[in-house]
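Quick note —
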Amino acid sequence: MSFIDSDTHVVECEHTWDFLDPDERDCRPKVVNGFWRVEDLHYWISAVIDRTHRETFPTASVDLADPSARIRRMDELGVDVHVLFPTFWLMADILSPAVEAALARSYNRWLAEATADSKGRLLWALQAPVRSIDRALEELEFGRKHGAVAVHFRGIRHDLGIGDRSYWPIYARAQDLDLAIAVHVGANMRTFYSQPHTFLYANLAPAPMAMCAVLTTGLHQRFPRLRWAFLEAGATWLPWALQECLRADNFTAQRIFSRDWRAAARGLLSEQNLYVGCQADDDLPYLLQYAGENNLVHGTDYGHLDVGSDPAGLRTISQRTDVDPAAARKIVDANGRRLYGIDSAFRPADKAGA
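Predicted structure written out below.
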């Protein structure tokens, strides 16, 4: 038995910023008291892998100083592919578009180098500088050639929702390149740390908000081949979000309570290429009624130790007795392959464990 881990993380290191263009080296983040500092602002994102991380994950597997250490651990867990997401970019709303573009370029080239010899085991979500469209499109082209399978977004970034038309050129190019749009939980650091009690609104809620934006702004009709993922917010919110979207009349802003939103919801995720990352303890029998078997995925959050982390999550779901085994297998394997365009025959972890 093997798995696709649809949401894992790297922790950036000094080497991440060694790929800055020569004219942009003055943009390099500095480490101040163990945290990254960009421009004149401190980002409360650790630049140091702490003791707990070192005890939990193989040495050099999270900062990718030794990618082979990560792959050996994947073999032990029976995981064919890790899809890598950032740590730094989950909360960094960098004020300067030019600095943002410079750091995105370096980050993407760091990941390209670190994963180049992984033989398809370490795939990744690229960082697009969304306020510099020409630079963003260059990063999509580069990423696609070097192992990227998705474009990392947050549900709200620089105060813009995912339905904003300024993102349409990115979506169009991602569709052409067969890259998914992966909306991961995250927040504007300034809001998150000044108002920590807004965690649910600032960090988690933008993911379901983004799915609602896709459903209510016609993005599927405009980009019918584009695949969308909404990750690390669990899936418990899904019926509520579908209900609110499907019983709304967007022309009159009136609620239509006579519409059978449950019937309309069935099959909707498949029709619109929407994938939702569930947690290992979600009420899957209930959620499968609305999501169907083909559009839930799971990510263990490997590399992080927080509310969304569960290194054994894939195996836990596969062994749940309240979920049909065939449906469980899709959640931990087949659905992730379809989301990220991974060949169903690519099963190196099986061979490693043989």
